[in-house]
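Section 5.1 Outputs to date
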Amino acid sequence: MEIDFSRCVGCANCMKVCDKNAIRYSLASARKPKMNGASSSQDHQTDVSKRNFIKGSALFVAALSGLSVPSVAQNRRRRRMNENHERGRGAGNLSAIPKHVTTPPGSRNLHHFTGACTACHLCVSACPTGVLKPSLFEYGFFGMMQPFMDYDASFCNHECVRCTEICPSGAILPLTVDEKLTTQIGVVHFEMHNCIVFTEETSCGSCAEHCPTKAVRMVPYKGELTIPHTTPDICVGCGACEHVCPAVPYKAIVVDGHLEHQKAERPKEEELKEKPLEEFPF
């Protein structure tokens, strides 16, 4: 039997269905050829204990350095925002930085997703908006290259279930469109002190215009100005509000991912009277 590695996505389904245990993953080892017909007893023997010690030491150092902690992703974002602040691009409040990374809809929870994902990137390729991106340390050292929801890059279409249909490993389980509409992968968080309505006393409202469930809406603030108000119960965590927020260096509105996906309440009809725009202004 031959395997076409150019088409293999590493889903491991072949291992699950083979009842003869005839296929498995293993570390490839390079063997030195025998010299001058020497017997096998004179062959060089690899010291496995030394190799395992080196691997273990490397993982231990990585853990000590914090690479196994998902918060590294937020630390990277924090440093980038601080750089913008030092360049004089404004002030802001760090409390609007999400505490948890957001996993794709259908992944159920962080443990299930990181345990089953093979980083084949089929979902990344299929995502129509490009919100799914390969991670660096968002899931820690052992979750490198597993996809995450990058709301700096884009947002999740409210009725799209493409990634749930294409995942070969079961890391992202199938969802119907109706199930997707109430799947809460994260929840909105608003920091007024970062909002340009507060800092610059100018009108905005981009987040409310692009929220598909109206979990973000504008309420009276000062004079004719309005400011965002959130209703987390009907938020699905799509990231549209975060993606379009123009506040720098810190976003005024962000999505904090759920470790365990929740079910959002359906918005009332009166909350959906204003239809969101199809194109983003930023």
